[in-house]
Every structure is written in C-alpha cells, then in structure tokens.
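tool_call: predict_structure(chain=1)
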Amino acid sequence: MSGILRVFMVDPAIAVDHIVVDTGGLQASCLAPPETYHPAFNQRPTTVGWLPEGE
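tool_result:
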C-alpha cells in the first residue's frame, strides 16, 4: 500500500463531512471519534465547542 488516500468528486451536491481511518483500537460506535489536531496545522485547538457545558 502506498499510504495515499484519494477522494474524487462524483457529484457536486455531495459533501464529505469527515473521513475516519481506523489504524487499530477504534471502538464500535454510531458516532465518529473525537477530532484530533495536527500540531503543524493547528497549534492551539479550541477547547470551547458548540455543545453546552458537560456534554
């Protein structure tokens, strides 16, 4: 495997919300795993989201 993920547009009305790559240890869930940040692109990720406190 080359380690390259290619995504092609098939229909302009379709949007990709997120892509999950399971490299092992991913628990089965209907929801996506929590977002992770790459330090080279986002050195201070926000800790305040749109959800109310405690959720």
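agent: The mean pLDDT is 71. Proceeding to next step.
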